Amino acid sequence: MQSALSPAAAEAAHIYHLWRVFLCVMVAIYVLVAIVLFIAILRNRNRATDETGMELIAEPKQASERRATHVVSTLVIVTVLILFALLIADFFTGNAIYATPDPNALSIKITGHQWWWEVEYQDPQPSEVMTTANEIHVPVGKPVKLELQSTDVIHSFWVPNINGKKDLVPGHPTTTWFTGNRAGEFRGQCAEYCGEQHAHMRMVFVAQSRDAFGDWLKAQKKSAAEPRTESQRRGREVFLAAQCVMCHTIQGTNARARLGPDLTHIGSRIMIGAGEFPNTRGYLAGWISNASALKPGARMPPNQLSSDDLNALLDYLESLK
Amino acid sequence: MNTAVIDVSKLPPHVEDHTSPIWWGNTMLLFIETTMFALLVGSYFYLRMNFTNWPPVRSDVGLYQTDPDLGFATANLIVLIASCIPMYIVDRACLRLDLRVVRLGMAIMVLIGLVTIALRFFEFRGLKFRWDDNAYAAILWTILGMHLLHLITGTAENLLMAAWVWLKGLDTQHARDVRVGAVYWYWIAAIWIPLYAIVYFGPHWL
Amino acid sequence: MKVSHQAIPTLAAPDEAARKAMQSLWTRPPGLIGWLCSTNHKDIGRRYIVTAFIFFGLAGLLAAAMRIQLAFPENHFLSPDLYNQFFTVHGTTMMFLFAVPIMEGIGLYLVPLMVGTRNVAFPRLNAFGYFAYLAGGLLLWGGFLVNAGADAGWFAYVPLSGPQFSPGHRVDIWADMITLTEISALVGAVEIIATVLKQRAPGMSLNRIPVFVWAEVVTAFMIIFAMPAVMVVTAYLAMDRLANVNTHFFNPAEGGDALLYQHLFWFFGHPEVYIIFLPATGFVSTIIETFSGRRIFGYTAIVLSLIATAFIGFGLWVHHMFATPLPLLGRTFFSASSMMIAIPSGIQIFCWITTLWTGRPRMQVPLLFVCGFILVFVLGGLTGVMLASVPLDLQMHDTYFVVAHFHYVLIGGAVFPLFAAFYYWFPKWTGRMLNESLGKWNVLTLFVGFNLTFFPMHILGLHGMPRRVYTYLAETGWGNLNLLATIGAGVIAVSVVLFIINVLVSLRRGAVADANPWLAPTLEWAVTSPPPAYNFYHPPSVADGQPLWHAPEQRPVVVGLSTEKREVLNTTIIDAVPEHRYELATDSIWPLLLGIVVGLTMTFVIFTAWAIPAGMFFSLVVLYAWFWRGNEPKFIVEAAKPKVEMSQPEAALAAQT
What we know:
The complex is a heterotrimer of chains A (321), B (206) and C (657). Chain A has 321 residues and is an alpha+beta fold. Chain A has 7 helices and 13 strands. Among the domains of chain A are: 10-97, no CATH class; 230-319, Immunoglobulin-like (Sandwich), CATH 2.60.40. Chain A is 37% helix and 19% strand. In chain A, the strands form 4 sheets. Chain A has a 5-stranded mixed β-sheet. A 3-stranded mixed β-sheet of chain A has the order 5-11-10, with helices on one face. A two-stranded antiparallel sheet of chain A has the order 7-8. In chain A, strand 7 (155-157) and strand 8 (166-168) form a beta hairpin. Chain A starts with 9 loop residues before the first helix and ends with a helix. In chain B, helix 4 (135-168) runs antiparallel to helix 5. Chain B starts with a strand and ends with a helix. The mean pLDDT of chain B is 93. Chain C is 63% helix and 2% strand. Chain C is built from 20 helices and 4 strands. Chain C has a two-stranded antiparallel sheet with strand order 3-4. The longest helix of chain C has 36 residues, at 80-115. Strand 1 (54-55) of chain A pairs antiparallel with strand 1 (2-3) of chain C, so a sheet runs across the interface.
């Protein structure tokens, strides 16, 4: 689910193959060096302790010194050649993973925040742009372009099954590319220390078939579902009256703030708290009541709601699929 | 028992030139400081990549009026380069242990040093930005400021040596120290030449 | 050729009275004040070694706490804030307060002895260097103990470490501590270079300088060109953070650049690891030579490899930045140079193994640690070549794979040789041998514990575990390997404890060591253990690189240096021909006072920029007093005069056979 050794995209696959080449070469070299070291210390060792005297080779023989020089020189040349070979393999892999820009690629803009991921699916039509948080879905087989930026400190976007990581440096927006080649659910995690909750800045990454992805994207682009039960209606009122609207957006309501994650479809997210806790009623309740208890230092303030209000709010949020 | 000896009692107890460890210690310090200035220059050019206008534009003056003023800066450059002459005269006088010349020369060097420090303050006033205005100002003030630090320590060192030769006379050890101080002073002047060029002419010529 | 223990002689000693007079001339004044005034390189070297080892222990305790926190998923042993301070202070202490100072400290102790002189070139400056280092250590740990421990990582990237995202003074303490430790490192470097250039024994031409001394000289040059970068970058950071200064070096909104920080930091940071590693290779060359019973194979190749490593080491730094937005061409260049540096390291390893192969190795504890070094460091070097590849690095960067890599090269490449060096030179420093059996347990527990702790981390990194996380979810499956690593850390702790026990017990009851218990070839083994204050009564001359193995009793010795003031011989740079004499300063209190002034300046600058001009003023005052000779306290001047009356020392010497 979160491993560089289990590639689910073309890029990660190239890197994995390169890894196997390097691993074989390095293991072979290491074993060789260890064996030679053991032979060197055992073959001619002086078993005397310091009491009985030692053996001094005051003038090593010319012939054996010359022979040793030849051996060492050969080893040095072999080392250089091996490094060259590795460099060439490295070069080919590098070429393979630095994709040429594809105008048909799916374009996603990712903004790093302390400590969550803002995800924006791009579209030539501004009204079709879709914002979500901490969860990314992509279609298998289609190139995806990620535009990466940060508004606060340096973060690093890393989904090991997909590709190597790329840093999000304030002042230096950048892009990375990948093409998924099998479906599955994976995890990503921020890989550049970004403050107190760097450890809890994760994301859910889902690669799915084109059809499934199309359905998901269409659903995500819709505005928030209208409340259908009384409790859900009450929940929406609680949301709009509490401090939630200071930071969160729910498309279709008056809540339009962008300080925190977009909650329009929170009901369908797999995890909450930036890929940290399962999206269950219990965790959601705990998160709303006191996010800092679950994730110390999280910027979301605690909310003291009556249990009725809280239950209604949970009903409403769960309905936002 | 060791039979042979190497008798060094006839060797000089002090030397005044580059064979002295003090000279080498000073040279190592100059390597360190030169590296530091090279890094400041590197930072200058690196930050420049983030700007379309360098120096940046100010809203209250015209586009090309944000360059640092040349007047006091050029005067200071000339004073610094010219100051190497009395320094060199003192330097050679030390070899002869010529107390009179060294005393006079060191007094002159202290005065010159104070002049360069004063001129440097006017140079700061000729900058069109405060140090906290932007990244250009930050690196500019740092380059001028670090060199000012050397003007101060160089002058302080000259003052110390001047005090010694006036109060205690000139022996070989302190003649050596004055000569090593002279090397430092030559460096302070020499390093300013490329820094001056980059700070005052860099934006339009480089 | 079998040589008996007694047959390797030490250099000729004159009569008792002369020796006593020389000893009192070169010994510091008595009492606490005398101890604080000492300018003896052995006193100062010992201070560095003991202080650095204490910091090693403290940083190790932090690591133990971190390992306990990570042993189980979602553990609550350390809060996130505390964990973040712990990993920052652990890294900062190990890199700045342990690794570099101990390598320099051992160098400052041994280099004058190995080149045949009596002290370093600038004794008072040397004393000051230690006090600046101590001030830095006290600043960092003082801050840590009042909950102001640095918490932005040991390299403190901006903008996280900038004024907006790290309010308070934690990062200021970190930045200002670095200035102090870097001043100390630069001082040590200047000492080593000046001493080795000008004060070598007659006949010790460049091709006869011991490999360890070469390693220290090359390291000193690296320090000179690398340290300014970290001083510049922490100065920029401090200026950005200071309330009344508020510059914008790293603020993108005003044209500043977060990547400028990384370039400057790593321009220092990469040479830094070679600054730590090269002296360790010097230990290894020395110990392999002694315990193989033959001169080191490939002396020229090894020296050239040291120099090549130093040069290439300055051309690697961008490999720490492969994941940042940088042009592709740049990354390719640094990838190639990062692989290339394996070549000089490889050459050294080949030469070492060849020396062992063609010698008669004695498997005593120092050599056992060296074998541990080879087995651990080579693995780390190989993962380093992996990390040099950009595609691989993009998966491994900032993960536990890198944590594994750098601990393999740092603990393997520096700590194993360091323990070897301790066992080897402990007799010279203290006059006692460390216990050999306990030493063998020491090696074994360190080797096993180390691999148990850090090998699993390679796998954890590839399985997605990033660095600097105070905990992890159970769903990741990282729990088992983390638990294994924690157990390994416990074994390492046992090893360190065994070492401490060995030291404490051996200091009292270890076998007494004579001048040359290991039958080693270099000059430090020509004098008593521990050496007298003046090192050599008659400084030696040499005719090859293994002086004590080639009839040292027949070599001419130097006579004619003053017995009334502290004098050494200066020789020419290339061929070490005697050139002139050189008087060294006596003991002095001014280095301590300057250390206090500089320490206080860097402490107050945390709060206000006015500390700089104030600090400069007081520093100048102290420096004036320092240089104004003839005003040393009376008890220092008297202590420096030889107490025993001598008659015609030259004549007495000439009268000897």
